[in-house]
Amino acid sequence: xxxxxxxxxVQFLPFxxxxxxxxxxxxxxxxxxxGVLFAVNAVGAALQALYIFVYLxxxxxxxxxxxxxxxxxxxxxxxxxxxxxLVPDTETQLQQLGLFCSVFTISMYLSPLAxxxxxxxxxxxxxxxxxxTIATLLTSASWxxxxxxxxxxxxTVPNSPGIITSFIRLWLFWxxxxxxxxxxxxxxx
Length: 189
Prior knowledge:
- The protein has one domain.
- The protein has 7 helices and no strands.
- It has helices at 13-32, 35-58, 62-86, 90-110, 116-122, 130-150, 153-175.
- Interacts with TRPV2; the interaction probably occurs intracellularly and depends on TRPV2 N-glycosylation.
- Its main location: membrane.
């Protein structure tokens, strides 16, 4: 974004869903007393906030992006209010917050596939990031293994789609190798 001074080929939805995902898991880690989960997601939330600010800086339609960000953060705050004020005991909070986190994790892993139809139609993966695909595969596999180690289905189950969607994207890279001269304009989700 900084190099091109543009967000034309950058999706906003993955940034936003990842930020909500990090903030949700940070809360889950704090409630559970899991320092690893808390620390990793605190760093992730800070980095995602930075990405969102950079995106906003270069985005010509700031009001749309700000509206989407405010709406999703509003949902997050309503969720926090529910978990901290209306759910009586810690075990129930942990279970319900785990489900809440799972929904955002799955949406985060599925959001880069929003342009799947366009990739297949254009027969080009120019609008997909290979490095992000590899990072997603490694991250989701690491969290899945961590969840298995802790026997925590709230960590294991929602990270499994990240492995699957990464393999789908890798298959697309194999089927439609990137070409330097194509210009892929992403759907602005």
